[in-house]
Amino acid sequence: MKSNFTLLFSFVIVQIGMAQIPAGYYNTATGTGYTLKTQLSAIITAGHVDQGYDAFDTFTAVHDLDNYTTYENDGTILDVYSENPNGVDPYNYTPITDECGNYNAEGVCYNKEHVIPQSIFSQNYPMRSDAHHLLPTDGRVNGFRSNYPFGNVGSNLISQSGISNPTLNGSKLGNYVNTGLFAGYSGTVFEPVDEFKGDIARIYFYFITRYESQIANWTYDMFTTTSQGLSNPFLYTLLDWHLNDPVSQKEIDRNNALYNYQGNRNPYVDHPEYVCQIWSSFCTTLGANTFTANTSFSIYPNPSQNGDFNISTKHTLNSITIYNVNGQIVQHIINPTVSNKVYTISNLASGFYWVQLLDGENGIFTTKIIVN
């Protein structure tokens, strides 16, 4: 399968632990496409025990804390709308003590945000109390985001009293970037910082899987009544966020805690590769190439037009690095020998990978692949 998709960006490697998945939890997840999604829905529905809405306050005071050296590691509330991954946080919240009462500005208090607005499902249970899509967030930013969909914001930002736009950590509200693969929506959207886009995407994938039998009854710009679950512009957006922001240790720890708390897991944190196994054609269009070979694929630098995927490399490949879903290096080849414009990378187990190619002239190219 060929693709001339390339993405240029700096790649940060984070070593993280593997999720503590109960033995046999995904044994019945054997299908592909939307069949796999339905199988996952049955798995995560069967064990789900509704703990009630107010119980989340106690959960978040223990399990939504900044205990990570990648951030401040200070035990404050880890809020995706105030955490500054590139510097000092604009403000911090103490669990329980800084829960909202009244507020009229950013940085006053935190409350519970439904990542999927609760008005969509008329505040019904168990959706309202499902902690997989509940996050502790700044009260004013939560209100600023309101019920708007998530998406990439263009140049027209929205002004509101009591808050800057972008917010103090760089999140923003404005018109949707309605172009290319992401075309099809022209309304207002909210965009979190890059650090947490994958988190938001995987929460949505969980939600439309857990409640796939009910989605058709709800009206929301992001949803569709078909098995696809998300309308095209938002599916492409969230796939892009998922592919470019790998699962973090925070997500893994939270997923394990949520399993103990309410009896079910987010399968897309445990198995990020499930995403492109379900929405495979969309992933391929985005540049996440799916290979049918179990152990190898070939790189064909231009001007060849044959092979698994093509890169815009004119000269020598300095190195090839392959990362797994957790950002860990599984192979690193220095000065790979390219014979007849072909280099075959072998011994890859089935799964999801990022492949980074360092070209002597043009820099770094990264593509995403799924080896079946």
UniProtKB/TrEMBL annotation:
Listed Pfam families: Endonuclease_1 (PF04231), Por_Secre_tail (PF18962)
GO terms assigned for molecular function: endonuclease activity
Domain Secretion system C-terminal sorting: start-end pairs: 299-371
Keywords noted in UniProt: Endonuclease, Hydrolase, Nuclease, Signal
Domain of life: Bacteria
Transmembrane segments: none
Stretch forming the signal peptide: 1-19
Entry similarity comment: Belongs to the EndA/NucM nuclease family.
Stored PANTHER family: ENDONUCLEASE-1
Identification of the protein by name: Endonuclease
